[in-house]
Structures are given as C-alpha cells and as structure tokens.
Specification:
The chain is 48% helix and 0% strand. It is mainly alpha-helical. It has a domain of 34 residues. The N and C termini lie far apart (90 Å). Belongs to the bacterial ribosomal protein bL34 family. One of its GO terms (biological process) is translation. Keywords: Ribonucleoprotein, Ribosomal protein.
C-alpha cells in the first residue's frame, strides 16, 4: 500500500507524463471549439489579431516607438484588408432619414413634453411664426 502522506508516495501514485498529456489534450480540445460569434466575425472594426490578414504584423504593441503620434495614428487610419470599411474611424451608412423619426424627435408633441420645448413654442408663438415645429 502507498503512503500518500509523503511526497515520494504521491509521486509514485501519479504518473506525471500521463497527467501532462491529458491536460494538453483537454486544452487543445477547448481551444479548437469555436462559438457561433467567433465564426461570424466581428461586427465592428477591431484591433485584435484575428481581424488581421495572416502575413501582417500586429497593430498594437507596447513599445514606445509605436506610441508616438505618427505611429498610432498611421496604424488606425491605414486601410485594412478584407474589410467593408476602408478606415477604422470611417463613417457608416446608418443614416436613414424618415418623416416619422423627424416628427418624433422635433415634432409639436415632443416639444410639449419638455420644459425647454414648451419655452421654444412660446417664443415662436410670441414671434407669430406660422409653423411652430415640424
């Protein structure tokens, strides 16, 4: 019978090479599992290594040479491969004007709801404007 109280008995009971192999297998299996969001890709431009082409260098590093004003700005504004937007801070095509949205934000009823809106309506009434709001 083995004595598990001393270190020699414990070392004899557990074979470390087998333990290392099983741990490395489980780590490899966990890293090979991919979720749906990782398969789908980022929805916004990111600075992570996964969004870079395979042959390029990483954008962010902690060296003082890349933290200069030209280093970080040139990396952020550089065009990226395999991207829908050419620049990281590029404007997106999310503006979709609508008559209902304009009425909801700047209409007469929205002006009545707030104190500043009511004050604006009073000023326009005092000037005898034909249209008080949208």
């Amino acid at each position: 019978m083995l004595c598990l109280g001393c270190s020699r008995g414990l070392a004899a009971a557990i074979n470390y090479s087998t333990l290392r192999q099983s741990v490395s297998k489980t780590i490899a299996q966990q890293s090979s599992k991919r979720t749906f969001t990782s398969l789908r890709g980022p929805s916004r431009p990111t600075l992570f290594q996964s969004s870079l082409p395979p042959g390029s260098a990483p954008i962010l590093s902690t060296s003082p040479t890349t933290l200069t004003s030209s280093g970080i700005l040139s990396n952020l504004c550089a065009p990226r491969a395999f991207s829908t937007t050419s620049v990281l801070g590029a404007p997106r095509d999310t503006f979709d004007p609508s008559h209902f949205v304009r009425k909801r934000r700047h209409g007469f009823l929205s002006r009545l709801k707030t104190r500043k809106g009511r004050a604006m309506l009073k000023r326009r009434l005092a000037k005898r404007r034909s249209t008080l709001s949208h």
